[in-house]
Amino acid sequence: MFVARSISADHKDLIHDVAYDFHGRRMATCSSDQSVKVWDLGEDGQWHCTADWKTHSGSVWKVTWAHPEFGQVLATCSFDRTAAVWEELPSESTEMGLSHWVKRTSLVDSRTSVTDVRFAPRHMGLQLATCSADGLVRIYEAPDVMNLSQWQLQHAIQCKLSCSCLAWNPSRVHPPMLAVGSDDANPSAGGKVIIYEFSEAQRKWNKVETVMIVTEPVYDIAFAPNLGRSYHMLGVGSKDVHVITLKPLKRELAVTAPPQGSSTQATGMSRFEIRQVAQFCDHYSQVWRISWNITGTILASSGDDGCVRLWKANYLDNWKCISVLKGDGTRSPTDRPGGQGAMQTSNVQGVGNGTRYYKLGGMLGQTATNQVVWH
Amino acid sequence: MSMGRTMFCTQEGPLNTISTNRDATQCVVAGRNVFKIFSIEDEEFVEKMSLRVGKINLNLSCTDVVWNPIEDHILASAATNGAVVTWNLQKSSKSKQDHVFTLHKRTVNKVSFHPTDVNLLLSGSLDGTMMLFDLRQKEVASTFHAGTDCVRDVSFSPHHYFTFSATHDSVVDLWDMRRTDKCERQFTAHNGPVFSCDWHPEDKRWIATAGRDKAIKVWDIQYKPHLEHTIQTIASIARIKWRPQRKYHIASCSQVVDFSINIWDVRRPFIPFAAFNEHKDVTTGIAWRHDPHNFLSVSKDCTLYQHLFRDAVRPADSAAPVGLAINIHGDVTHAVSNKLENASAVKGSGNYQSTKAPSFFRRPPSRSELFKSANSQVQVYQNAGVKNSLSMDWFVISAKKYQLTGKLLKDLCEHNAAISEHLERYDVAQTWHMLKILYSADAGQAITRTFTMDSNPDYSQRNNPDKGAGQAAAGQPRRPRHGQQKSRQTGGTKPSASPGSMSGQRDGSPQRPKNSGRQLSNIASGIRQQLTRDGAGSTRARTVRAAGTDRTGPPDNLNGSPPSVNDESEISDMAQDQPNIDCKVELLLSTNALAEQSHLWDSTQMVVDMLHHFAAKGDVQMSVSVLIVLGDRIRPHIDEHTQEHWLMSYIDLLGRFQLWSCTNEIIKLSGHSAVNCLNQQSTTVRTACNRCGKTLLRSGWLCDKCKGITNSCSVCHHTVRGIYAWCQGCSHGGHLQHLQEWFSKYQVCPAACGHMCEFAS
């Protein structure tokens, strides 16, 4: 059961990204209107906007939270070719409950739109990766975690393809790993998901794999949280939703397998067994955003159909749609009149077996809280 | 309709400016050392002539060029040296230069022909003056002084004969050309130089301005100038040009940084409607070909380009129209474009339309109509109730209530099983029960108490198939997901003692406790099977295996010691006589003698696999809890790194839920050096001076600020070594003995602070 609430976000243009903080009690939204808003979950269970400020001079594509250990810190990236790091000023909240955010740094190395920005997992310290439309992935580090205004460009990786998204592998027991997705529209340009791994010996990021399964443009990519798994799981939002596992092969195996075994040994690069465990085309065309739950067992995706779909593997590792969420914030004129409460409609899109499509009745106007039947 | 194509040609030097002739079939481009006229063909630019002939001087170093909008043979150019040159293409001589006005003292930034009067030419210069030339008389008709400000741009109004605009540093002037002393109106438009202004070709009220402050502004100048729209771009703007026949569209190019030409819809000022990224250096001039889909541009990269709208980049198309995030509590936030909302509403209700009158046909909205009104809805799907598979309530409750130490293993297992059962996590409860059986000495009793051994699931399904199905069906109306479960039960796995199938249940689909009972007997059956296999003679064993083929046996490492107490023949009898087995096993298990032997087959590997399985399925809590509860029974069989990975993952998770006490407990109980030291690493205990409150940095007894010894005895004023007794109210104290003496006589503080110390009583 979900309770759906609409928030009047009041951004003046499209919202491109939503991010929850570490503890799930704060939320940031970013929009083409060049601003970012921070929302806090109040005692009353409602989300209140506690900050709203102009961050860039172009569309803000992504917003992301740093681990709270580093303070209340956000990073944004924008069409204006910069990425920025913001920090909330610790202050006794004013009567309006508003907080103040200051720009700690602006990362201006990119010559094109910066399409994604992500903080590295906490165990790697305060690092930030950005990727841009001209195919460059940049990794910055703040050597002093107390000084957020100093960031050094540590690595720049040339991807050849225009980058649209990136993801850090959260696993603490494996070498640092990045997955980069490309929105290059040409399917013959090959795989659109590229995996990089950091080699401690060389102090360098190496390309270890190109996921050839995905050749359509990729708009979102996310590693599943790794809570004690020995392998990695990657969600990819492309034309379809893909779930891909990367099983590290034993080093010895990897060395003997490729013809140039010696070179592999020299670089110490990992090899992976890449397998697609699921692929879904239930969103009408493009899948724009995906998100994992905290345990890395459920993948949510959202696409051009305006719905959220939740995917989960059953005990046989078959991934199925377990739910479709669709809130009716606005009732379009074509909508059926007289919709009251929760109505069951047949599964129009032909989702997997056992999936039902529940539509929220249009209760707007009377109350903002709708009951979504879910199972 | 042939529209030509996107094409370019490269010149010998950077280009500064471009202008087209009346019908836009030809264009003139100019720069420091280029001055050429091209004819625009379908497939290519054809050079018609170069105006840079004859004596080459600075007059030819063009900053601007305009083609007369009425007479196709007249052009005018502005030069860096302040010269304004007119050109007559009808001249028979090689040089078409007509007349040179050298009245400006500094660079002329802009020249502009009157839109309707062929003979009027206006210039604006860095020297702060504008001049109106009459081409018939070849002299200056009027000079307008803008004060000390340099003139950045001038242009005649297309709507009023006498009006022209001029832009300076931060202000825009509207002049009446009949008045030379003073402009008619002036308004501050930008923060910094205004590099460009463009009258709206249709709407008489509108004028657009742009400048170094990176903004494009649209003003309504009908009355008092009023700001209608602002577009904030990423770089200082060099040129703007309204798009013909599209009221709200305007093209812009930047002076630095951004090489692309952007077409904006002023109603959606945040993202370009279209972008043209062909140039490799900054674009310096834009000229529309009277057609909204076709324009020319020149750039510092030495190229002249024709751009077609069909080849435009649409930045908005690759911008995600949705945002999506799940928080740790399983709430889902979904921000979705209103367009998608509507789109899916239309599609979603498609199956109802047949019953209604067909909606009247409408032309689909144009791209720019769709573009302009972009907005997003935000929905938060707050998860409600533990039934939700995104819910993490089970995690929090388990973390708080699990007991991991301090009791007998069997009690811990029982306790934890009860908690899991209460949370309707029967598979986990099951696992705890199983662990109890495997690792606790008097498991036999537990079994007999918990179960009446109705049968193992194999038989229950076989004997009364209706039962399982009926149960599932009963659940159906309430929670349709039982449908899945049903198939799992009937068509799915053969019940087995392997951890996989049990954990499979933890999809969140609740099961009746009864199921759990049957499952547990399953384990028993596993044990039984092992027993028989171990104990039976070679011939008998085969029979047993044959009987047990339809279930998956436990792992193959049957290296337990052979049973000593059991009668071989009895076991083999059971194997032959299936229906009786369970009762007998029950009997067997309920004897303590056997129970002590219950690990005669080595279950360790199975438990290890099970822990791996739980971790892989996202329930690292279980892995860690079992690890801690079993301790050394299982520890040596799992490698250190994996243990650390689990422990750290679990600690991270607990941290996210702000379960600090649980975190601490896990760290304490982890038994893992790398984890144990977490507590020490991040914990600092500081001592402060009891007089000034300053942190003691050097040692515990000397304060740098007071230059004195801390904690001296209030009675004898000597340093206290050993026990220091102190009042929590006023923080004065001293030697225990001294204080006892003091307080036997007095009730107030010995330090004379006036406090009635507590321990005076």
Automatic annotation (TrEMBL), chain A:
Annotated organism of origin: Priapulus caudatus (Priapulid worm)
Subcellular location field: Lysosome; Nucleus envelope
PROSITE patterns cross-referenced by the UniProt entry: WD_REPEATS_1, WD_REPEATS_2, WD_REPEATS_REGION
Family per record: Belongs to the WD repeat SEC13 family.
Main subcellular location: other
Repeat (WD) residue spans along the chain: 8-41, 280-312
InterPro entries per record: Sec13/Seh1_fam (IPR037363), WD40/YVTN_repeat-like_dom_sf (IPR015943), WD40_PAC1 (IPR020472), WD40_repeat_CS (IPR019775), WD40_repeat_dom_sf (IPR036322), WD40_rpt (IPR001680)
Protein name (Swiss-Prot/TrEMBL): Nucleoporin seh1-like isoform X1
Gene: LOC106805003
TrEMBL record, chain B:
CDD domains hit by this protein: mRING-H2-C3H3C2_WDR24
Record-given protein name: GATOR2 complex protein WDR24
A UniProt-annotated Pfam family: WD40
Entry annotated with the keyword Zinc-finger: yes
Organism the protein comes from: Priapulus caudatus (Priapulid worm)
Bias kind Polar residues: ranges: 453-463, 486-532
Keywords, alphabetical: Metal-binding, Repeat, WD repeat, Zinc, Zinc-finger
PANTHER family: GATOR COMPLEX PROTEIN WDR24
Presence of keyword Zinc: yes
Region called Disordered, residue ranges: 453-570
Family membership noted in the UniProt record: Belongs to the WD repeat WDR24 family.
Family matches, as InterPro entries: WD40/YVTN_repeat-like_dom_sf, WD40_repeat_CS, WD40_repeat_dom_sf, WD40_rpt, WDR24
Swiss-Prot/TrEMBL WD repeat ranges: 101-143, 144-185, 187-222
Extent of Low complexity compositional bias: 468-477
